[in-house]
Design a protein that fits this description.
The protein is α/β, with parallel strands linked by helices. The protein has a single domain, classed as TIM Barrel. It contains eleven helices and twelve strands. It has an eight-stranded parallel beta barrel with strand order 1-4-5-8-9-10-11-12, surrounded by nine helices. A two-stranded antiparallel sheet has the order 6-7. Strand 2 and strand 3 form a beta hairpin. It is globular and about 75 Å long. The structure holds ligand PBG. The site of ligand PBG has 12 residues, from helix 6. Ligand PBG binds next to helix 6.
Amino acid sequence: MNLDLSKRMRRNRKSDWARRLVTETTLSPSDFIWPLFIQEGCNEKTPIPSMPGVYRYSIDLLVEQVKEAANYQLPMIALFPNTPQDLRDDKGSEALNPNNLVCRAIREIKSLGLNIGIMADVALDPYTSHGHDGLIIDGEIVNDATVKVLTQQSLILAQAGADCLGPSDMMDGRIGAIRQTLEQNKYYNTQIMSYAAKFASSYYGPFRDAVGASSTLQGDKKSYQMNPANSNEALQEVRLDIEEGADMVMIKPGLPYLDVLKNVKSTFNIPTFAYQVSGEYAMIQAAVENGWLEKEKIMMETLLSFKRAGADGVLTYFALDAAKYLLNKDAI
Ligand code: PBG
């Protein structure tokens, strides 16, 4: 056999330095947004069984987490409240209370003047007794009436000091309506990272445990979240959100939807984020706890994959661990 090996791909892999020299994708702490769950109380830290290593924090302890996040150079956190069940109703009224859990948390964090952004979710599901992101009238999750409430919720979050809003509800027209409300109220600098292509996924289960919506959710979210079978439709969703005023877009879930992420990034070339969601985190942690996968390696490989596919950043429950790993390999 006569192999022509003048082109040997392995030359550039022959040693650590050679591999580093030709590496195409790198990770830094600035690539990660850290989702954090909040609960009422003082000095409270509650584990979420379906997300090993993730906790809900009362505001006083949350603040410590956010300080650490800023210390490890994470650029942004994303806050999700676990609203006490007795404050949930069919209209999600608590979302419009300027003193609700998330607004108090935002004000508290803002008062510290840290070099970190605060993203706040816009959707009604942590506040509704039925667990849906929108209002229900005659059995239907209604669009336009929900958008109206979402604009009010957005304004309240912006007034509390949120730097970036993350509408995760998938109602039509909400980005335009929220942007208009922000402009009218002179919140010119409030960013919108739209959950532009959010799929009706089975990977959100552990998150719903964390915000206390699992037991309450009636039915599914298929009439507003996208069909996992569709990719072209994601481009339409993203195009509309950009036209309506989104500064950044997100694809969600993460790894199973890298093809969508790549399409979106190469079509629009705007800041594009992936959400490595709760179920993805849970799967990795379950394997790690069983000794089947190595945490640091699998964590960094998945995060790298997002960037290779075109993500500008990733929302991930591993954010702090990954930042620690990158800055100080002994820290985790
Ligand atoms: C709610 C919301 C969800 C997530 C983020 N915002 C759940 C849902 O749509 O049911 C999921 C995040 C995760 O699973 O990590 N609007």
